[in-house]
Amino acid sequence: MANFTQLHLGNKSQETSHKDQKQKELSRQKVLFGSGLLAVTVLSGVFLVITNGCSKGPAKIAGQNSANQNASNQPPSAILPTPVVTPAVETPAEKPARKHVVQKKAPSATFSDPINGVSFHYPKSYVLKRGREASLDLAGLGPLQMDFVQPGGMTVAAIELPRNSYPGTDFNAAFFSVSVNPELSASQCEQFSFPLNLHPENEPGSPAKATIGGTEFNMVEDSGATDKKEPLMKYYHRFENGTCYEFTMGLGTIAVDGVQPVNREQVFRKLEQVLATVKLQPGEVPQVAKGTSHPMVEGSKQ
């Protein structure tokens, strides 16, 4: 009986020790499981920290890019530039550009006498006189004196410069006239009745050759009774189509103390411009029409 009791006690002690071992093993497993769980938790936290850091970097860059893009998309008026102060620099004054002045030609009129075969152009501001009107009183200088060597000449027309053509000078009048003489030969047309020259080869009043407007003329100058060498009258002769044509240029001045003398060369140059427009052609047979008593004049009052 005692033995059975001991055995039973022995078995009971063995079962108790075995149970303690199981509890210890279970406690150790719990510790290991808790340590593993803690390690996993720590590793997860580290991973989350790293992941959040990486995600914040691109997001921050994307945010900066988005902000820059929004700033660039704003209208220019919203972006205020920083004012830049530059020192004032003095620039030299530019010279005004020269304006090209176009000189307009004065309106002109045309005189045409088909019977005597002569025509010319003249400024409309000049005064036109025809036939007998021109020979009676020309530019206030009295009747026109022709310079043919033989009678038979007649005045066709004349023009006068305006009296105010040269203000502030001793200019009084100037004219240009046309006369014809169908009775003269070509050799006689080369001669002039005045100024008289006993020795043409020595005196300056002998006929000279002058070309104006492409046409050659025989020409003499007359200074009148004055001692000045500058002429007051010029006569041009041209023989064409069986007729002797005479073109006269005259200048009248007044003697006033303290008044500047007019440039005679300039006045005669204007008259020569009219002579340069002269056209000569064969005359037509006169046809008397009703109410027609003088040659046709274009651009002038009838």
Structural write-up:
The protein is 31% helix and 23% strand. It has helices at residues 2-73, 131-136, 186-189, 264-275; strands spanning 108-113, 118-123, 127-130, 154-160, 171-181, 208-212, 215-222, 233-240, 243-253, 279-280, 297-298. Residues 1-10 and 58-62 have low confidence and may be disordered. The strands form two sheets. The protein has a seven-stranded antiparallel beta sheet. A four-stranded antiparallel beta sheet has the order 10-2-1-11, with no helix packed on it. The protein is rod-shaped. It has two domains: 2-68; 108-285, Jelly Rolls, CATH 2.60.120.
Layout of secondary structure:
Layout: H1 2-73, E1 108-113, E2 118-123, E3 127-130, H2 131-136, E4 154-160, E5 171-181, H3 186-189, E6 208-212, E7 215-222, E8 233-240, E9 243-253, H4 264-275, E10 279-280, E11 297-298
Antiparallel strand pairs: 1-2, 1-11, 2-10, 3-4, 4-5, 5-9, 6-7, 7-8, 8-9
